[in-house]
Amino acid sequence: MENLSYYEILEVTQTADKATIKKAYRTMAKKYHPDKNAGDAEAEHKFKLCNEAYQCLSDDQQRSIYDRYGKEGLSGMGGGARRSSGGFDDLGSMFEEMFSGFGGGNTRSRQNPADMEKYSLDMNVEMYLSFHEAIFGCEKEIEFSYKNSCKDCKGTGAKDGKLATCKQCKGQGQVYIKQGFMTFSQTCPACHGAGSAPAESCSTCRGSGYEELREKVTIKVPKGIDSDNRLRVSGKGNIGKRGTRGDLYVTFTVKPDKHFQRNGNDVYISIPVFFTQAVAGDTFKIPSLTGEIDLKLDVGTKDKQQFTFRGEGIDDVHGHGKGNLIAQVNITYPKKLNDKQKELLSKLQESFGIEESKPHESLLDSAIDKMKNWFK
Fold first, then answer.
1. pTM for the predicted model, two decimal places
2. Reported CATH class of domain 1-109
3. Residue 139: left (phi > 0), alpha (psi -120 to 50), or beta?
4. Secondary-structure class of domain 112-155+207-255 per CATH
5. Among the four 5, 44, 111, 310, which has the fewest Cβ within 10 Å?
6. How far apart are the first and last CA of the chain?
7. Any idea which fold 260-332 has?
8. How many Cβ atoms from other residues are within 10 Å of residue 15's Cβ?
9. What is the mean pLDDT of the chain?
């Protein structure tokens, strides 16, 4: 269950609104609550995951960051979804409401402070790719910094690993706010819910609980990758107190191309065409992603008309076929004409006959005659 996304944990879609998420959370929390599953370690674990998922998805800011970068994106918020979103949708009050008749009341358990990680094990880095690299795939070396738990303080940030009771929450991990006859709780901002804090900072890591190290890794970028796509590199994230290492997520940004414009797996190219080519329905070669292909214009091709070449687009990054190449015609006209060109164009126009070469005359003549009758 820990490998599922927060939406999957609560069994909702990514487009679910707050009311749907809250309802789903109540159902899941009631199902796995420790008061109903005494001694069931798996249920307790699922209960904690539901709690973590809800605290993230019920907060607009955290949810937005999570949707884009995943759990590792929340690390910059002091522990991600483990922090409360302010306490005004208090989980404790929700539990009391759900279990008030169950004999349990507010009996949430808190993790041992010595076991709590000070940072997310998963992490994210950004990588820029050229259009060509993204379309055809490549191998790229990336150098990044990751956190490794300080061995001298066992990752606590405290000298010799010695922690003292947090003075602000008095070891509760929660602080309480009264509003009228109601009391709301939120995670203690001083200890972030641990209930304890270092009595004296570790001199090795200066109280951070970790050291930062550099590493290089070569990744294989698949064909068809696009901006905001992510690639997981297993076991290359931050290292926790017990030596467990998270995953590295690489978020891609693809630089635009001078000629091709991407839309999903389809790729567009603008083709300048002289007006005589459009009129005659000319055939000529245009560039594609894999070489040159023939573009055969229709006789009388219109400006902005599009021609589709199926299967000549971009490989789907998940292996689900290929997109199309769409060539859009942009008709160009001469900016000036010499006498000889004017003469030739006049002869060409006459060769089509008056009815076809001057379609405006019959229409305008009838309109002018009608207008004259208005003033009689």
1. 0.58
2. mainly alpha
3. beta
4. mainly beta
5. 310
6. 87
7. HSP40/DNAj peptide-binding domain (2.60.260)
8. 7
9. 83
